[in-house]
Amino acid sequence: xxxxxxxxxxxxxxxxxxxxxxxxxxxxxxxxxxxxxxxxxxxxxxxxxxxxxxxxxxxxxxxxxxxxxxxxxxxxxxxxxxxxxxxxxxxxxxxxxxxxxxxxxxxxxxxxxxxxxxxxxxxxxxxxxxxxxxxxxxxxxxxxxxxxxxxxxxxxxxxxxxxxxxxxxxxxxxxxxxxxxxxxxxxxxxxxxxxxxxxxx
Length: 201
Ligand SMILES: [Zn+2]
Hints:
Blueprint (H helix, E strand, L loop, with lengths): L1 E3 L6 E3 L7 E3 L5 E6 L2 E8 L14 E4 L2 E12 L4 E9 L4 E7 L2 E8 L2 H4 L10 E4 L2 E20 L8 E9 L4 E7 L5 E8 L4 E3 L1
Antiparallel strand pairs: 1-2, 3-4, 3-12, 4-5, 6-7, 6-16, 7-8, 7-12, 8-9, 9-10, 10-15, 11-12, 12-13, 13-14, 14-15
Bound molecules: zinc ion.
The site of zinc ion has 8 residues, from loops.
C-alpha cells in the first residue's frame, strides 16, 4: 500500500497490512489510520539508533523463523528504556520482539484469563499462571512512550503512558508482559532469547 505523508507530501510504501500508525521516513511526522483515512497527528518522532543489533528494515532469523523489522516503539520505565520491535514473518504475521538490556523475547499475545478476569492489577511478587506456566511478577511501573519509528499496528504517540507489569517464569526461561493500556489488559508471553540466537540476514 502506498500512502502520502500529510505533512511533507512524500510518498511511502507501507509493508504492514495491519499498520495503523506510520512515521514518515523523510520528515518523521506520525500519521494514524482513522476511519480508513491516514490522518496527520502533528507529532514527530526521531529515535537514536542506540546499541541494538536490530534496526528498521533488517531481516533476521530467530529459532528458524525469518522476520523483517518494520517499526519500533521505545518506552521509558524511569531508570532506563526498552524497545519493542514490530516485525513481520514471511507469512505476513505481525510479531513484537521486545529488547530489554540486550535480551530479547519474541512475544505472543495470549488470552490469560487468570489475569484479565482478575479485579484490579496484579501485585509485585504475585504468582500467576499463563498457558500452563507459572510466572512471578518481578517489576511494575509506568511505561512512557519516548518515540517510535516505522509502521506499527497500534496507536501510540510520544509521551503517552500506561501501567505495566513484567514477570519471569519460575524456571527463568520465559517472559510475561502485562500492559494496562486497555480493558481488559493486554498480555504477552515469550521465551527469553540470547542475542547470539538472532541471525541478522
Ligand atoms: Zn513527511
